[in-house]
Amino acid sequence: MEKTTDVLPLTMNSSEKQETVCIFGTGDFGQSLGLEMLQCGYSIVFGSRNPRMSSLLPNGAEVLSYSEAAQKSDIIIIAIHREHYDFLTELTEVLNGKILVDVSNNLKIKQYPESNAEYLAQLVPGAHVVKAFNTISAWALQSRALDASRQVFVCGNDSKAKQRVMDIVRSLGLTPLDKGSLMAANEIENYPLQLFTMWKFPFYLSAVLCVFFFFYCVIREVIYPYVYEKKDRTFRLAISIPNRVFPIAALTLLALVYLPGVIAAILQLYRGTKYRRFPDWLDHWMLCRKQLGLIALGFAFLHVLYTLVIPIRYYVRWTWTNRTIAQAIAKKESPFSTSTAWLSDSYVAMGMLGFFLFVLLGITSLPSVSNMVNWREFRFVQSKLGYLTLILCTAHTLVYGGKRFLSPSSLVWYLPSAYVIALIIPCTVLVIKFILILPCIDKTLTRIREGWERNPKFSESALNGKTDI
Ligand SMILES: Cc1cc2nc3c(=O)[nH]c(=O)nc-3n(C[C@H](O)[C@H](O)[C@H](O)COP(=O)(O)OP(=O)(O)OC[C@H]3O[C@@H](n4cnc5c(N)ncnc54)[C@H](O)[C@@H]3O)c2cc1C
Ligand SMILES: NC(=O)C1=CN([C@@H]2O[C@H](COP(=O)(O)OP(=O)(O)OC[C@H]3O[C@@H](n4cnc5c(N)ncnc54)[C@H](OP(=O)(O)O)[C@@H]3O)[C@@H](O)[C@H]2O)C=CC1
Ligand code: HEM
Ligand SMILES: [Fe+3]
């Protein structure tokens, strides 16, 4: 193909010799990367099965057969799917000593026993294989999407080869992240295949919670009045019931953020050591606390929005007016109750303060903010203020329940109000946490976390061959 000069390199320095890079494969990714590299001043040679057919290629690039192209450069980017790698074995001689950049992804996690990059290294043992670029999509390269991730994970066994690939990454305006030897390729190849892994469990859990509490409230507030009083209360499905389900989900999820911490503490106390791994379910739970917390914050937001509209609701205005008229007709006055005023104001005040701290927790979890605070400050906000948030939100709900809390009149078909059930987990977490911070228990826990063990495996006497008492 004739070399044209339509694409002018943006960063070409006339005193520098253009570096030639070879790209194998003229598909979507090869083309996008080639165009980008041409614009950044590289000389690009494509390797293709049909050099003549490749008409869509960026102007300025040369297209040759695979073996001819390979001779033009000592860096070759393999923009081919793994399934078609076998032909590379025929080129082992020309590829000897060259840097091969594996950009490939698979369709599924664990599709093959070894990573694609390691497989490539086995096929062409004389080459230096470097894994890179697989987390950048052809689309992001083409559209120069600023919002897409600009991080490129790089790994490889030859540090010089890796360095040269990282230089290319940098010159494209992307950020290379050295992940070490080629053994890391497996992990790097899994990144683009993960679909919100840390969000899955919190997401399903909140869906289950919402569905459960929704039907629970429907039974109590729509079906029951219909069966016993023949009243149509279906309008409650729009605001009243969501404004129970959302705050209840928020409170329960918030408590579930702090529950694994107390379970972990109990396990450590029971085992008398911190040097034993937590069970997998607990580990995973601990790792997705941030996501649980953020979903909880979302529900709390909804609760606040739904609460704001209470005064403009027709049903609420109708009830107020009717009550006033009924009192006027009966010539009855309801005396002002200071205790009710106190209860009502304090539960709303605690809700507002709780919500404020909730938002603060959410803000500190933004990477730009958490990068600005040190580890102790972050723990202070997340752990101490987090517990304060839980206390305030639990108290908000307890005081809201007030005197009706467990009164038999609020039972419907023996079912207590939904918020009574919602209080079980938060209260349990707070009670256990309170026990854990009692000085005698806290002292032991702190010692365990500093490395002390109740039954040390490697005590001096055991090391000396004596039995440990
Ligand atoms: C809106 C919102 C946003 C959130 N954002 C984030 C976030 O960005 N990042 C995040 O991580 N969490 C986030 N969370 C979750 C939560 O706030 C944190 O995980 C918080 O640190 C949990 O506090 P904790 O006291 O329960 O746990 P921790 O202080 O982590 O302690 C839990 C357990 O770990 C063990 N442990 C603690 N220290 C040690 C030690 N030195 N050695 C051995 N074991 C130890 C103990 O068993 C302890 O009980 C968020 C929550 C919410 C509500
Ligand atoms: N598309 C994307 O956004 C991304 C892709 N990748 C990776 O880049 C690599 C290429 O992807 P992409 O460009 O999308 O794929 P395409 O299917 O669009 O292109 C693959 C190219 O491989 C070449 N090839 C060589 N041998 C064969 C063969 N036997 N059968 C078919 N094609 C062959 C072909 O080029 P020719 O006809 O010139 O020989 C073909 O154009 C893959 O490993 C992919 O995982 C990584 C990140 C993102
Ligand atoms: C600005 C902040 C807040 C305000 C103004 C507020 C206000 C209210 C009001 C008015 C109610 C009664 C609703 C009704 O009568 O149906 C209520 C109930 C409730 N709130 Fe809040 N709240 C706030 C924040 C929170 C937060 C952050 C949580 C928990 C995470 C929470 C949890 C609850 C719960 C569980 C209920 C009981 C739901 C029910 O069963 O009716 N609230 N809140
Ligand atoms: Fe593709």
UniProtKB/TrEMBL annotation:
Segments passing through the bilayer:
203-228, 248-270, 291-312, 347-373, 385-406, 418-441
Q: What membrane topology does the UniProt entry give?
A: Multi-pass membrane protein
Name the domain of life this protein comes from.
Eukaryota
Task: Could you list this entry's UniProt keywords, alphabetically sorted.
Answer: Copper, Endosome, FAD, Flavoprotein, Ion transport, Iron, Iron transport, Membrane, Metal-binding, Oxidoreductase, Transmembrane, Transmembrane helix, Transport
What chemistry does it catalyse, as a reaction equation? Answer: 2 Cu(+) + NADP(+) + H(+) = 2 Cu(2+) + NADPH; 2 Fe(2+) + NADP(+) + H(+) = 2 Fe(3+) + NADPH
- GO BP annotations listed: copper ion import; iron ion transport
Alphabetically, the GO molecular function entries are: cupric reductase (NADH) activity; ferric-chelate reductase (NADPH) activity; metal ion binding
Cofactor(s) this protein requires = heme b; FAD
InterPro entries xrefs: Fe3_Rdtase_TM_dom (IPR013130), NAD(P)-bd_dom_sf (IPR036291), P5C_Rdtase_cat_N (IPR028939), STEAP_metalloreductase (IPR051267)
UniProt keyword Ribonucleoprotein present? no
Q: Where is the Pyrroline-5-carboxylate reductase catalytic N-terminal domain?
A: 20-106
Kindly indicate whether the keyword Flavoprotein belongs to this entry. yes
Q: Which Pfam families does this entry report, sorted A to Z?
A: F420_oxidored (PF03807), Ferric_reduct (PF01794)
What's in the GO CC field? endosome membrane; plasma membrane
Q: Which PANTHER family match?
A: DUDULIN-RELATED (PTHR14239), METALLOREDUCTASE STEAP4 (PTHR14239:SF5)
Q: What family is reported?
A: Belongs to the STEAP family.
Name used for this protein in its record? Metalloreductase STEAP4 isoform X1
> What's the name of its gene?
STEAP4
